[in-house]
Amino acid sequence: MNTTKNYIFTSERLGFRNWMEDDIPQMANINSNTNVMKFFPSVQTAEQTRGFIYRMQQQFEEQNYCYFAVDVLESDAFIGFIGLSDKDFESDFTPCVDIGWRLSENHWKKGYATEGALACLKYGFEELHLEKIIATTPSVNIKSEEVMKRIGMTKVKSFNHPLLLDDERLRECLLYSITNR
């Protein structure tokens, strides 16, 4: 196992880094959990997870940001991702930079999503000099919307997500945003 972890930045309890091969099985396990993926059209396979991680590695090389692999500093435990990613699906607010998170179920309700998202906003605004960061979630995902509010984002509107039009439960999404102050 590769235990060399070069953190791009840290928060009080979390380390944010680019992805490693060793992360693939752990992230695949998270992506196959039906509770974690409740607000997505389906769980993801190991191969889909591998593709996602490769895309994130490539995006980091090009942009200096991605949905970062996240570890708990105290225990060195990998818990999922929190970070920034480019979005370019067809809408009136894309292309844009999105903030998102997906954590293993046994690391929920510890404040990690909020703490990590605040650290990512700080990185995006102070280090990358981004002007605006958005977040989207299906309107039924109250917990993600609560995180968006806690990190200071403002609701912009509801919209039908073009990639979820065939999914009656997930189609209606919320758009939140925050600008660099």
From TrEMBL:
It comes from the Bacteria. It holds the Pfam family Acetyltransf_3. Residues 14-172 form the N-acetyltransferase domain. Gene3D superfamilies: 3.40.630.30. This is RimJ/RimL family protein N-acetyltransferase. The lineage of its organism: Bacteria, Pseudomonadati, Bacteroidota, Flavobacteriia, Flavobacteriales.
